[in-house]
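Q: Given only this backbone (168 positions), what sequence would you predict?
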């Protein structure tokens, strides 16, 4: 079983983000009880706050690049938030399409599960068809899908991420 090890797609994305945005904090593996998708190595949190305009601009830019290259990357879901016109916070998720996630693919959909995603955005490669049975589920909820093992997208996304960093 793969537990506590980043899946190849997460590892590759983290490496590119660390190269282009070395100052941005990134979290992948963690071991809460019960375990979550981060424990299975299928998720990443990118610490960029909507409260800080320059951080939010980087996050929005990264997310647009991830959407643009979805066909290469095949991530499952992104969770973040934005300001509504009335000043309240709009919590949203963007499903990639498939992998058991609902909502309109590659668009912002209302997210109601929690209100945690204001100081970071979350991206994952979870596939709900690949749930481990109990009791293993409590230690390691998901197996890696073929998409979670995807690599080879780094150069395509790096060029677009560097353009963001140049302020283009
Ligand atoms: Zn997360």
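A: Predicted residues:
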């Amino acid at each position: 079983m793969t537990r506590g090890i980043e899946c190849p797609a997460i590892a590759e994305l983290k490496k590119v983000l660390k190269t282009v945005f070395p100052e941005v904090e990134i979290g992948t593996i963690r071991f809460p009880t019960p375990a979550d998708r981060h424990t299975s190595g299928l998720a990443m949190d990118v610490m960029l706050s909507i409260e800080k305009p320059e951080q939010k601009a980087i996050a929005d830019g990264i997310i647009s690049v991830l959407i643009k290259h979805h066909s290469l990357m095949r991530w499952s879901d992104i969770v973040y938030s934005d300001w509504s016109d009335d000043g309240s916070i709009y919590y949203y998720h963007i499903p990639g399409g498939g992998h058991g996630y609902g909502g309109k693919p590659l668009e912002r959909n209302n997210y109601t599960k929690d209100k945690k995603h204001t100081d970071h955005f979350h991206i994952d490669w979870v596939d709900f068809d690949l749930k481990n049975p109990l009791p293993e589920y409590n230690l390691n909820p998901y197996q890696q899908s073929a998409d979670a093992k995807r690599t080879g997208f780094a150069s395509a996304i790096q060029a677009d991420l560097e353009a963001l960093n140049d302020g283009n």
